[in-house]
Design goal:
The complex is a heterodimer of chains A (about 325) and B (about 290). Chain A has a domain at about 30-235. Chain A is mainly α and about 325 residues long. Chain A has 14 helices and 2 strands. Chain B has a single domain (about 5-280), classed as ABC transporter involved in vitamin B12 uptake, BtuC. Chain B has 11 helices and 2 strands. The chains are: A mainly alpha (about 325), B mainly alpha (about 290). At the A-B interface, helix 5, helix 11 and helix 13 of A face helix 4, helix 9 and helix 11 of B.
Chain lengths: ~325, ~290
């Protein structure tokens, strides 16, 4: 079975099966797709450009807060607020990226700066009454109003996150084969050599940053509308930053399908752990920590690395 | 603002700074030798705080006295972590090594949450509330002991690094890894020792603050970020810089708290962090290391 047929079958199943599912299973599947989506967004910067952000919560939070505040204070539909949040996050990402890349921050130092920016936004949100401080913001859930991104059942949210994920995946695939994709790979593998070959490394990394932060912010709006509640710790805290990088790392950073595979493995696993160890908060994250250590130790290229290795051994491209 | 408040802020900052300094010394030592930014450093401190807490609750061991037990115990734990998790990945990409310690941090922090829940625990000792006035500023005795003890411990470590064979080997490895191997230093052993010593440092810092600081799984996070700030400020791998950086961050935090409402004091600390990373990544105290 070729990869194309397999992909088409998987997509068909993802479109056709959910209406038949129980509410519980549908919730898990939404969660899987949501973290896959954030992983895809993170992957553009972390995987393709090789810049490991530990602070994607900054963009996620900007998206969630922008659309929610515009909805609550100005009655603007989150469909538009979502785009505005995305643009705002991209601007913030460009600012963060320009400062970091302009001053040559690389590797772990870049990770630390992104973490610090996200933490700063969290502290500001906690201390600002106008955005609900640590109490957070409640998003209305009824009456059902598709024009306002409010639905009564879970199914519409499922199809929205499926569409977002599919579009982001298509975008990743397209970029991977474009001039930008080749520039990104060149910069990731050897920045000096890429510069010598005429690639503008700064512009290349900034493009990845803008795309990645824009997409992450859209995820923030989805979160706010779906869970109907946001607060500074949820949206700007480290758990979103880690949740975004984990599926990509486990699935395979810098590959199209990596984040999706990663989320399909990790998210149900975390749900199972949470279910098996009810009342023991932290068990699922503890498992994530252990998985992260094991994956880095034994599968440094993620699941996709394993797939590639087996293909290479079987003599297939 | 009155002079009394300012004096109080300076005193609190200095008392906090010593502890930050010791935590950062451990982080800096690990970075100097292993070239790893250890995300699990705060988590090790948190585990040491629980060890101190349980020794006090179950066996009635005084937190200060428990250092005699926790320091060697966490040295061994550090050596084990390094041998089992870090060393096999010594040739992994830099960002993967960072993720490795992030994984460890998540694991330990949530292990504590699973085992002991998220409640804030405190160690109540007879001297917990002891204090005296220094001019217009209140000095809490446990904080003074913690800061003084931390500086003493850092000084002892400094002397150790200068005078003993293991200490000299550690410095040699930080300066010139290949040269160190060539002159017959047991590199694997010294690499393990660096993680062990770094963990022992942070364990002592943890024990010293339990008489006045709450113990909880998430206590690790804030100290971890503070230690990063301090180490970057003092210069990665720069030992004396780490101690000086500790006092600066302590002061920045307490002055920020005096001038800004709520938890906005942290903004000052993060702003310093980002500015130093951008403009003086080698730290404030000269270019001891390049990036």
């Amino acid at each position: 079975m070729s990869a194309r047929v397999g992909g088409a079958l998987a997509l068909a199943a993802l479109v056709a099966l959910p209406p038949l599912m129980s509410k519980y299973h549908l919730e898990i599947l939404i969660s899987v797709l949501f973290w896959a989506y954030l992983g895809i967004a993170w992957n553009m910067l972390g995987g393709y450009a090789g810049q490991f952000s530990f602070g994607h919560a900054a963009f996620f939070g900007i998206g969630a807060y922008t659309s929610t505040l515009l909805l609550l204070r100005a009655g603007l539909t989150p469909w538009i607020g979502m785009a505005l949040g995305g643009v705002l996050a991209a601007v913030f990402g460009l600012f963060e990226g320009y400062l970091s890349f302009r001053y040559g921050l690389k590797g772990p130092y870049f990770s630390l700066v992104t973490l610090a920016f996200a933490e700063m936004l969290r502290v500001i949100a906690v201390n600002t009454k106008a955005v609900g401080s640590s109490l957070g913001l409640v998003v209305p859930t009824s009456p059902s109003a598709p024009g306002l991104f409010i639905f009564s059942g879970k199914l519409p949210y499922y199809y929205i996150i499926l569409a977002m994920g599919a579009l982001a995946l298509a975008l990743t695939w397209k970029i991977g084969r474009s001039r930008l994709g080749f520039s990104l790979a060149a910069v990731r593998e050897n920045e000096d050599a890429a510069e010598t070959a005429g690639v503008d490394a700064l512009a290349t990394k900034l493009r990845a940053m803008a795309l990645s932060s824009f997409l992450t912010a859209l995820g923030g709006t989805f979160y706010a509308q779906y869970f109907a509640y946001i607060d500074p710790t949820i949206t700007f805290g480290p758990s979103v930053s880690i949740g975004a990088l984990l599926p990509a790392i486990v699935g395979g950073a810098g590959t199209v399908l990596g984040p999706v595979l990663g989320s399909f493995v990790l998210t149900p696993l975390s749900e199972l752990t949470r279910y098996a160890l009810r009342g023991r908060a932290g068990a699922d994250i503890m498992l994530y920590g252990a998985i992260l250590v094991l994956v880095i130790s034994f599968l440094p290229q993620g699941i996709m690395g394993l797939v590639r290795e087996r293909r290479a051994r079987a003599g297939r491209p | 603002m009155s002079g009394g408040l300012l004096l109080q802020a300076v005193v609190s900052g200095l008392l906090l700074g010593g502890v930050y300094g010791l935590v950062a010394c451990g982080l800096s030592l690990i970075f100097g030798v292993l070239r790893i930014i250890n995300f699990a450093h705060g988590a090790v401190m948190m585990l040491a705080m629980y060890a101190t807490y349980w020794l006090f609750v179950l066996a009635g061991v005084d937190p200060y006295l428990s250092v005699v037990l926790t320091a060697p115990l966490f040295f061994v734990l550090g050596v084990i972590i390094q041998k089992v998790v870090i060393e096999p990945n010594r040739f992994a990409a830099e960002h993967n090594q960072l993720l490795l310690t992030l994984g460890l941090a998540l694991f330990f922090e949530n292990l504590a949450l699973v085992l002991w829940q998220g409640d804030f625990r405190t160690v109540k000792v007879s001297y917990s509330g002891a204090s005296f006035m220094l001019g217009e500023a209140l000095v809490e005795v446990p904080r003074l002991v913690a800061s003084g003890g931390a500086v003493l411990m850092a000084a002892a470590l400094f002397v150790f690094l200068r005078l003993t064979d293991v200490g000299k080997a550690l410095r040699a490895l930080a300066e010139e890894p290949e040269g160190a191997a060539l002159v017959g230093i047991n590199v694997a052993r010294i690499r393990a020792a660096s993680f062990g010593l770094g963990s022992a440092c942070v364990a002592v810092a943890g024990a010293l603050i339990t008489p006045f600081f709450y113990v909880a799984p998430d206590v690790a996070e804030s100290f971890n970020i503070m230690a990063f700030v301090v180490v970057v400020l003092g210069g990665m791998g720069n030992f004396v810089g780490a101690l000086a950086g500790g006092f600066m961050v302590g002061l920045a935090e307490s002055l920020g708290a005096a001038f800004l409402p709520g938890s906005l004091k942290l903004l000052v600390v993060f702003a310093i962090f980002i500015l130093v990373l951008l403009f003086r990544p080698q730290g404030l105290f000269g270019g001891s290391r390049e990036r």
